[in-house]
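Exercise: predict the fold of this chain.
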Amino acid sequence: MQLSTKHLLGIKDLLPSDIALILQTARQFKEVLQRPVKKVPSLRDVTIVNLFYENSTRTRISFELAEKRLGADTINFTASGSSAAKGETLLDTVNNILSMKVDMVVMRHSASGAPHFLAKHIPAAIINAGDGINEHPTQALLDALSITERLGSLEGKKVVLVGDIMHSRVALSNIYLLNKMGAEVMVAGPPTLIPKYIEAALHVKVEYNIKKALQWCDVANVLRIQLERQNQVLFSSLREYNLAYGVSRKLLDGLQKEIVIMHPGPINRGVEIDSDVADGNQSIILQQVENGVAVRMAALYLLAGKSSN
């Protein structure tokens, strides 16, 4: 089987069968990662450039590790120390890189739509590692893998995304994926951090009361407050946010059931989630990090034109 698309620009463009194929392939790679020798030479002779115009330690390291595990040749490019800082255009930068005979580009950019722009102009396969406030597809895929490992499937599961929905590309990719795979989705947080028309536009429930949201769900994916993307004051203080919307042990103990806790990281401990919850037995945050490498291996492998058995 192969993907229906040449690029991984967003979950919005994927078919449910594409999502299922990536998750199935990721499970196979996860088994490889448990072995003493964790490398497979599947992408030997494939050259991949990691093009990061925005700071990202976790995603970049995860992609680099996935590429090395597959035996690919990698080039790392960060915009701050490059010609991009001197005013070179995105297309010039990429054309220069492509002249080095690159097969794939993993790209993170602060402008929404930047990977889509590249995909129209260059022949290499593009993986979106996060574009502006649009999408972060591999994060949604690793979240999906983590949920299915804990709960068996996505279909019929109730998942709430808590926090800064307005500025979160993780939220948008998760909503697309969960809807396509038959889950029920709710967003919860302060009214100032939830887009006005999200209920009708994206077929999600909206809840402003955190306790009601947690009582409803099977899984709570707690999102980081993205202060760097907020150009106006959207809540009074981090302390007040924590009191009104922070996921605490006391809040979870007050529910009549046990729910799964997730977080895409990096965590603002004591703001959107308390340490004893992030590190507790309901949390699958470390599994998400582990699954990130397997999911990115799967995406790279499938986009390089390798079919999964």
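Check your answer against the key: The chain has a mean pLDDT of 92.
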